[in-house]
C-alpha cells in the first residue's frame, strides 16, 4: 500500500525523501509563499495519510478537515506547534525525531555559553568597526557550576562537553528521580535549588502549559551577578520582560537566547532586543546539515512505521494513547 505524505516545508532532505520514494509514497510540499493557508487547503482537499511537520502550526481544525490523516511526524524535537490534544481526540499519533538533533543543539548551547562568557560578539563588533578595546574581561568557565533545566538527550550531551572543560554540572527535571544515579552530574531537588547553586543555567525543558514562564522574576532573583542564562529550548519558558529588566539592571552577567516567545520578533515587540550582553539568534541550534538530515530521516521512519503498523521507539510518541486507535 502506498501513502500520500504532506511535508509542511518546501523541501525535505534526501535522507528522508529517498525513504518515501522507495516506499512508493506520493509526496507533496508546502511552498514558502503559501505557508499555513496552503497547508490547510491541501489537508482539506487531498487524501493525506501522513504529515511530516516542520515550521507551520497544525490545529485540531486543520486535522478535522482531513479525515484520512493518520499520523503527524515532526522533523524536529519540539511539538508546541501541534495541537496535541486535538490530535489525541482524533486518534492521530504525534511523533518527534527524538535525539536526532541532540548533538547539534548541545554544541550550539555550549557556543552561546562561551560567546556570552567571553564577550565574543562585543569584541567582534568593536574590532570590525576599527576599535581595539581590551578592557572588558570575561568569565572563565573552568570550575564554574552549570545547571541544566531538563535532562533529555540535548542536556546530557551538553553535560558531557561541560564536564570536559572542567565545569561542575547539576540537573533538574521532575522526571529525574526515575533515572536513578546520573553521576558525575548531580541531581538538584528542585528548580529553585538548581538556580540558586548555578553560575550558568541552560534551559532544555519541553514547552507545555506547566513550563510556560518557568523562569520569571522570582527565579531570576536566585541567580548571582555573574550568572549566565542560555535558552535553546523554547522562548516561552522565560518571562522575557522580567529577564530584560534583570539584564538592563546588570543583575546577571548576560544571556544567550536562540529562541524567543514570538519568532521572528515583531519590530519593537521584544524587550530583549538591545539588552546589554545579550546574544540573540534565530532558532539555529539544530541548523546543521547533519541534524537536518537526521531529523528528516527519523521523521520519515516514524511516519512510515505508524502507517504500516510497525513498532516505534518508546520515546518517539508524544501522545501514546492515540497509537492503535
From TrEMBL:
Its EC number is 1.1.1.-. InterPro entries: D-2-hydroxyacid_DH, D-isomer_2_OHA_DH_cat_dom, D-isomer_DH_CS, D-isomer_DH_NAD-bd. Residues 110-285 form the D-isomer specific 2-hydroxyacid dehydrogenase NAD-binding domain. It comes from the Bacteria. Residues 8-314 form the D-isomer specific 2-hydroxyacid dehydrogenase catalytic domain. Pfam families: 2-Hacid_dh, 2-Hacid_dh_C. Keywords: NAD, Oxidoreductase. CDD domains: PGDH_4. One of its GO terms (molecular function) is oxidoreductase activity. PROSITE patterns: D_2_HYDROXYACID_DH_2. Belongs to the D-isomer specific 2-hydroxyacid dehydrogenase family. This is Hydroxyacid dehydrogenase.
